[in-house]
Structure formats: structure tokens, C-alpha cells
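Researcher: We're teaching a course module on how sequence relates to structure. For the next exercise, students receive a sequence and then see the predicted structure as C-alpha cells, so they can try to spot secondary structure elements on their own. Here is the exercise chain.
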Amino acid sequence: MIFLRGKGIIISKKDVEEADRYIDIFMEDYGKISTLIKGIRKSKRRDKTAVDILSLTDFQFYKKNDNIIISNFSTVKDYLAIKSDIDKINMVFYIFSILNQILVENGRNRKLYEVLEKTLDYLNSSEDNRKNYLLLLYFLYIVIKEEGISIEGDINELQFEIPEQKKINLDETSKKILEYLFEDKLKIVINDENYELNSVKKAILVLENYINFNLDTNINAKKMLWGALLW
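Model: And here is the predicted structure for the students to work with:
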């Protein structure tokens, strides 16, 4: 029996029976894996939060037939500042909803994992809401690049094939944000507060529509982050 070890972020969970829990882990070296932790909800282990959603955890595990068996685990980061802020929780769950739709079992994507971990680290310490949403915009951009659906040329291509009723009415500021983003010049926007939050949100919705159309996903910032937007 060969034991493996690696760190990963728990992106979903489902409690079953009286004490068991299914978890999906996005691991740095092994991609997305799903496993059952038996008896954890009645465990007296002090670190059982290590197998709760939104935890960065160090795992020791082995494969038995086609199943992943966790033999040991310990918390690396628990992101308490995020868990105590409802807006940040919503942002993280929005990100997790994307990952749970695009990641495939055992599909490795180190770049996306690294961006996810850095995103959580930033959100855990940030008090700047505008910059938090710019970070979310950047995460969507990385998803587009890593999934191989990035545009070339005119930024208007982001809405070219989108059904008319789902298109976002972009103002010039939102267009400029997207142009800087795809030119890898987002720092210009970060450092200039004239690029206001509402324009950032519109840019997020454009990328969301583009991802949903091209990857057949169903991510929904209006529902998960803001409720109905009056635009």
C-alpha cells in the first residue's frame, strides 16, 4: 500500500447518515478528488474542522480500488476572517460553485489551484471591497485562460454570441476594465479608484456570461452575491 500526501482546499461537502461526510477537495498536486470521511461528525478530534468546507488541509491518503481513503489530516489554514464575514463567504462560495462545475475528477490544474489559494489568502486579510471584487474578476479571467476559451482581439467578442437578453449594457469604464484585464494591466485599475465598484460588477457579469455560454455552466453572481441588480 502506497501512502500519498498533499494539501488541498475543501470546495464542497455533504453530510450523510448520522456521522459521515462526503467532501470534494481541490488538491495542489492531484486535482479534484472526492472521498467519504466516515464518522467525522461524531469524532472527538479537535481538528475535525479540517474536513469542513473552506479549509486548507494537509491530507495523507491511499487508493483502494477506485476509491480515495483518507488516513490522516490536519488543518493548514482555516480562514476565520472569511468565515466571519458574510460578504466574503458569498464570494468564496461563488468561486467554489465555479470550480465544482468545471473541475473533473483527478484533473490537475496547478495554476488554478495557486490562484485559488492566493485569492483566499487575500480575502482573509483584505478590508477593501472594491479590490476584493477586482480579485474575483481576475479569478474569472484565469478560469477563461485555463479552460482555453480566451478571446483574441476586440473585447466585444465577449458578448458576440451571447443571447441578446443576457447581454450586459457595458459603459465605457467597464469596457476599459476588461481591456486592461485582457492586456494583463489590471494593476492600473486596482490603483485608480475612479474605476468604481458598479463598473467592476458589470465586468464580472460579462465574464460570467461568457463562461456560462462556452462551458455550459450555471454560475450566477446576481443570485449568490448581490440579489437583483438595478441595471
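Model: If you want an answer key for the exercise: The longest helix spans residues 197-215. The beta strands are 4-16, 20-27, 31-37, 56-64, 67-77.
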